[in-house]
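Example 9 (inverse folding). The structure is encoded as follows.
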């Protein structure tokens, strides 16, 4: 596996080595020793898998207590995946990084605890899989406004149409009002 820090160095793009032939392919998607050698040492305790249609935006979610690190990948389709730094003491506080994850490119994104996370579906459908470093705690979940001008996230919206959002995400709050990490 190759590990590439993004412009927010704690967020890392991981490219697995893919071994393929006429039968298909094989790849490792997580290996403790390689992740530890690249500074990712938190244990994973929960796996999540979602399916979404084109134009769906999920996020930007985070847990103010029991923050989750997430190792994200797409197993069907393509998404634009985003991480926003919510650590007030960080030099990159309020900044974001985005990466296209797809079944074709097989890239993974490591989003450490302390970040809001979300994704937008570019393909007809997408199945999104992620490992978490802490358990889901709905009482601590928060939703940051996906289109907050202070974040200025460039979402590659298809045909310029507004994304499909859940009621929770429609009620997301701007960064200026958000509970953040120290």
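The amino acid assigned to each position is listed next.
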């Amino acid at each position: 596996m190759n590990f590439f820090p993004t412009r927010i160095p704690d967020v890392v793009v991981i490219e697995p080595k893919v071994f393929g032939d006429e039968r298909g392919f094989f790849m490792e998607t997580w290996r403790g020793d390689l992740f530890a050698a690249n500074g990712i040492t938190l244990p994973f305790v929960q796996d999540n898998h979602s399916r979404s249609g084109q134009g769906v935006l999920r996020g930007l979610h985070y847990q103010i207590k029991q923050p989750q690190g997430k190792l994200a990948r797409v197993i069907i389709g393509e998404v634009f995946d985003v991480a926003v730094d919510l650590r007030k003491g960080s030099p990159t506080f309020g900044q974001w990084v985005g990466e296209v994850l797809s079944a074709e490119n097989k890239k993974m994104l490591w989003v450490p605890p302390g970040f809001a996370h979300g994704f937008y579906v570019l393909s007809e459908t997408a199945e999104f899989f992620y490992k978490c470093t802490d358990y889901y705690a709905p009482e601590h979940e928060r939703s940051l406004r996906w289109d907050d001008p202070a974040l200025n996230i460039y979402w590659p919206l298809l045909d310029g149409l507004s994304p499909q959002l859940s009621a929770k995400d429609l009620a997301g709050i701007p960064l200026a009002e958000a509970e953040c990490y120290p």
